[in-house]
Amino acid sequence: MATLLLALKGTLDDKQLYVDALSGSLDGKDPGEMYFDFRLLSAAEADDLNVHESTESSSRQLFVPCEKFLKIESIDASLVPARIAKERGFP
């Protein structure tokens, strides 16, 4: 449990756990499972990865600190994804 708490709320060498909110593709994965891209990143590294648009060889990424998801009030949960998308320039 301590490891999970550290991963979600802590830092390691000034990096924290981010999740690519646009990952989770089911392609080529086990049926019934969804996989997300988690990485230990600095804020600058996450910003660099978030800048890139989709290309034929790679899809767009949106790395969000996992800690941000822990702060979502349940009543606002349905509104948060739209707000994050708007902040990041998604239509």
Terminal-residue CA separation: 38 Å
Poorly predicted runs = none
Estimate what percentage of residues fall within beta strands.
Answer: 5-15%
The spatial strand order of the largest sheet comes to 2-1-3
Assign an overall shape.
globular
Count of DSSP H/I helices: 4
* Major sheet characteristics: 3 strands, antiparallel
Structural class call reads: alpha+beta
| Overall pLDDT score | 79
Helix content: 25-40%
- SSE sequence, one letter per element: HEEHEHH
Number of E-type strands: 3
Question: What is the gyration radius calculated from CA atoms?
Answer: 14 Å
Tally of structural domains: 1
What does this structure look like?
There is one protein chain. This protein has 91 residues and is α+β, with helices and mostly antiparallel strands. The chain has one domain (2-87). 33% of the residues lie in helices and 13% in strands. The chain contains four helices and three strands. The chain has helices at 2-9, 43-51, 66-70, 80-87, and strands spanning 16-20, 38-41, 63-65. Strands 2-1-3 form a three-stranded antiparallel β-sheet, with helices on both faces. The longest helix is centred in the middle third of the chain and has 9 residues, at 43-51. The termini are far apart. The mean pLDDT is 79.
